[in-house]
Automatic annotation (TrEMBL):
Region (Disordered): 38-67
Source species of the chain: Pseudomonas fluorescens
Ranges of biased composition (kind: Basic and acidic residues): 57-67
Protein's UniProt name: Uncharacterized protein
Amino acid sequence: MPKHYEVLERSFINGRLYEVGDTVTLEIDSPGGNLKLAEGKAAAQDKPAKQSGKAAAQDKDGNLPDA
């Protein structure tokens, strides 16, 4: 069953970089020292997911000035 964790230090998880304070949903048995089980309403309300990989690169390309 997936659980919500708060990121305590910058972490690379499942191919994505998470910053301090981000919330991540994972199906793991025992989190490392960089994660804390989110409690209460914070667990139910994830922060909007940041795009990663190709989607993020495409958005950045769209914000560049014309040459």
